[in-house]
Design brief:
The chain has 4 helices and 9 strands, in the order αββαββββαββαβ. By secondary structure, the chain is α+β, with helices and mostly antiparallel strands. The strands form 2 sheets. It has a 6-stranded antiparallel β-sheet with strand order 6-5-4-3-8-9. A 3-stranded antiparallel β-sheet has the order 1-2-7.
Amino acid sequence: MQRTLVARFLTLLLATLLLTTFAVRGQADSSALVDDVVITQNADGWWLDADIEFALNPQLREAAERGLTLYFTADLTINQSRWWWFDRSLVNLERSWSISYNALIRQWGVSGGGLTLPVASLDEALALVRHIRGWHIAPAGTFEPGETYQGQLRLRLDISQLSRPLQVNALNSSAWAVSTPWKRFAFTVDPEEP
């Protein structure tokens, strides 16, 4: 009887510890957030600009300075609300950047969209990720005039692009949990002029 009670208690204690660990792990960094999102239209289509606040903790900064490539991904969704059915998904995109350091030539680089830009420091590399400019999100005609659309944007450290041994280590460490909460925004397309 006592063994059964002790076994149940230990099982309950282990389950509580695991749930607490995953709950803390799933929370976004409170200092990281999407400040501003601006959607604009021109003849080529729809474009997004955004400003994001986040900082690297000392462990991630040290890993980057030792040559480990850090990957960041911005996730964007835009939906059209419909009262008679589920919302209609119009845009579901990701944009990724990698920040790397070449110790041989002492040069930082930011890669994204097939281009690599050399920068002088880690802070300059992070500035390019923090300020998203000119992201083409949809062709012209995607959004209807006079309609209002709901969107959300977030930025996260993408550990899925790390090598397998590092992914396991990152999953077990809260230092690698850099993510902004989803920033919800809405925009209305101007009605066409007659």
